[in-house]
Each structure stands twice: as C-alpha cells, then as structure tokens.
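Attaching the record inline, Q. Sequence:
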Amino acid sequence: LRFGLLWMVFLGAVLVSWDDRHLRMDLVSSALKGRALLLVRALTVAVFLGLTLYIAYYSLTPVSLYARTGQVSQIAEIPMAIPHAIIPVSMALMFLAVAIRIRGYLRGTLGHEDAGNDEPPAGETADNQQDGGPNRADDR
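Structure, as predicted:
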C-alpha cells in the first residue's frame, strides 16, 4: 500500500507539471509586466528543469544500489528498486512535460486555456461568470 501511494503521488506530480497546476507564490510576478515578467518566468522554468534533472540523476544511485544488492521489502518481498524507481522516472517525466510546454510557460498561457479570450465559456453569460454558476432557467 505504501509503495502504491508513493507511485501515485509522484505520478500525480507529473500530471500537475503537465497541466501547470503547481502552487505558486506569485506576489512579485503578478506585479511584473513585459520583459521583467518573461525573465522571472524563464528563471522559474530553468530552476524547475535544473532541479528535476538534479533529483533524477542523484536518485539513480540508491535505485541502482537496490538493484545490485537485490534488496527486497520485508513483508511483500518486492524488490526495493521498484518503489524507488518512481523518483528518477517521475523527475524525468516532469522535465519532459515542462520542456515540451516551455513556450507556453514563458508566454504565461499554460493553466489559462482561455487567456486572451474575453468571451465567457459556452453556456455562460458575462454577468453570470461573477457568481460562478451556469445560467440556467431553473436557477433564476
């Protein structure tokens, strides 16, 4: 159960990276415009990419050690290389997710599929967007 949870968390992090849904502290970046904003975004993406590569590389050492020694879990006798392999795998997948979508990260359009579109989503009117619900006759 613990190993399954570990895999779900790390694979979930890959999906969060792909969808650009990470938690942010954007107090500074929300006040920036133009080149300054682009620079902050580029720096953020570069740090993210660097950290994923760093973690992926250095997490290979324990995985290869577990594989070489044949260490298994005490109860289920699962090779310990399997649960620990999710760390380099997920970091590599997060790197790929960000690298593939880097243009959108830098433009600031990821996570904002309707960015630049002032029209309300289908089925909603502009005045109903503020209260967050669809405009249905039975809600009136």
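Residues 16 and 23 are 10 Å apart (CA to CA). Confidence is low (pLDDT under 50) at residues 113-121, 123-140.

More tomorrow.
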